């Protein structure tokens, strides 16, 4: 899956333009916590200082890198004009970071100590190596949680190119139990 940075396509950075948003079918396919898509989507918001404005975009994995690394190497580098200003970054990930990406994220945060990172994942990798990476991220101050229904609704409203009256409710059927399962799994990993 090719990296999909909206600005690379020459699209506007305005909330009035839906050009940078993802297609509803991509959101449903990749963020449904009961599915197991092959790729990873990363929806993100960057807020510098105490500004009420956020910069919102998305990226995916490509043939060379996972979505987290693409964010750091491409999207972050592209927008990082405020290195000395505190910055909060929120990621809505379709998969939790793998161990390799976790260490890459840790190095990124060492390089940019004024960045705080909040990761909200739709689902977790199951093998132990990947879970070790999550523990290391939390030890270094990264907030990691499972996306809850409010996150799904927020992402649908903000990041998805849907019709104004298009409803997402039917798609959420059955999410609650799986969200609880993933939450329990995350808590057991981080204990």
UniProtKB/TrEMBL annotation:
<keyword id="KW-0479">Metal-binding</keyword>
<dbReference type="InterPro" id="IPR002125">
    <property type="entry name" value="CMP_dCMP_dom"/>
</dbReference>
<dbReference type="GO" id="GO:0005634">
    <property type="term" value="C:nucleus"/>
</dbReference>
<protein>
    <submittedName>
        <fullName>C-&gt;U-editing enzyme APOBEC-1 isoform X2</fullName>
    </submittedName>
</protein>
<dbReference type="GO" id="GO:0004126">
    <property type="term" value="F:cytidine deaminase activity"/>
</dbReference>
<comment type="similarity">
    <text>Belongs to the cytidine and deoxycytidylate deaminase family.</text>
</comment>
<dbReference type="InterPro" id="IPR016192">
    <property type="entry name" value="APOBEC/CMP_deaminase_Zn-bd"/>
</dbReference>
<dbReference type="GO" id="GO:0005737">
    <property type="term" value="C:cytoplasm"/>
</dbReference>
<dbReference type="GO" id="GO:0008270">
    <property type="term" value="F:zinc ion binding"/>
</dbReference>
<keyword id="KW-0378">Hydrolase</keyword>
<feature type="domain" description="CMP/dCMP-type deaminase">
    <location>
        <begin position="14"/>
        <end position="136"/>
    </location>
</feature>
<keyword id="KW-0862">Zinc</keyword>
<dbReference type="GO" id="GO:0016554">
    <property type="term" value="P:cytidine to uridine editing"/>
</dbReference>
<dbReference type="InterPro" id="IPR050610">
    <property type="entry name" value="APOBEC_Cyt_Deaminase"/>
</dbReference>
<dbReference type="Pfam" id="PF18750">
    <property type="entry name" value="SNAD4"/>
</dbReference>
<dbReference type="InterPro" id="IPR016193">
    <property type="entry name" value="Cytidine_deaminase-like"/>
</dbReference>
<dbReference type="GO" id="GO:0003723">
    <property type="term" value="F:RNA binding"/>
</dbReference>
């Amino acid at each position: 899956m090719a990296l999909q940075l909206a600005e690379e396509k020459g699209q506007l950075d305005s909330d009035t333009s839906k050009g940078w948003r993802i297609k509803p079918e991509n959101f449903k396919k990749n963020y449904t916590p009961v599915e197991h898509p092959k790729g990873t989507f990363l929806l993100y918001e960057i807020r510098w200082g105490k500004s009420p404005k956020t910069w919102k975009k998305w990226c995916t994995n490509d043939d060379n890198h996972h979505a987290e690394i693409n964010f750091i190497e491409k999207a972050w580098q592209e927008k990082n004009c405020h290195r000395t200003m505190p910055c909060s970054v929120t990621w809505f990930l379709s998969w939790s970071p793998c161990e390799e990406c976790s260490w890459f994220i840790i190095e990124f945060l060492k390089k940019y100590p004024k960045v705080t990172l909040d990761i909200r994942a739709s689902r977790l990798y199951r093998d132990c190596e990947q879970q070790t990476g999550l523990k290391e991220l939390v030890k270094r101050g990264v907030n990691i949680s499972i996306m809850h229904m409010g996150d799904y609704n927020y992402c649908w409203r903000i990041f998805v190119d849907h019709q104004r009256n298009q409803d997402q409710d039917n798609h959420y059927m059955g999410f609650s139990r799986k969200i609880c399962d993933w939450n329990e799994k995350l808590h057991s990993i981080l204990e």
